[in-house]
Amino acid sequence: MTDSVRQLLKRVREHYATCSRYSDTGLLEEDIGGRKRRGVFSTTFCRPNELQFSFEDEVTDGVAVRCTLRGGAGLVTLACFGEVEEYGESELAIAVAGAGGATSATAYVIPALLLPELGYRQVVDVHSPHQLPNTRIHGVECSVIEEGRLGEEVKWTLAFGVQVPFIHRMEERGRFNGDDWNLVRTYRPEDGV
Hints:
It is built from 3 helices and 11 strands. The protein is of the alpha+beta class. The chain has one domain (3-187): outer membrane lipoprotein receptor (LolB), chain A (Clam), CATH 2.50.20. It has an 11-stranded antiparallel β-sheet, with helices on one face. The longest helix is centred in the first third of the chain and has 16 residues, at 3-18. It is globular and about 45 Å long.
């Protein structure tokens, strides 16, 4: 990893870990062996630990996934598949993991950066990424980093703002159980402070 790539990823990590407020809306597009899934999501965060994450997808195999996670004020509530579970504030990581399972890990991509104490692997924890040419996403100039994983069977691409280093797109592609898969998360972050 070059020093410039290392510095870019460090800047992303530090920006999320220190912003006092953050919010986004986004779109998940997933294709596994021709089975497609689209979902919309939003994240709202206010330090020290007020987190809300909502996700809703189109009906997949007859099951619509609606997932809402709310944490703060000593209580964490997770509503998924029509069931509501309550957790103590110290169990936020468990609730985020539950939401992650229903949302193709979308529920913990941004919260892991905002709250490093959750202990999740962060999308900026990479081994041998390289920088690709910049691109524009929703009118925002973005730096692009790519990494091959699992012997190059999986490609991972991350695009984040040049001026304000919030993530604007994350893409994973490879093979899963013998099927080609592609997962794209597109984010529209608001400027956090």
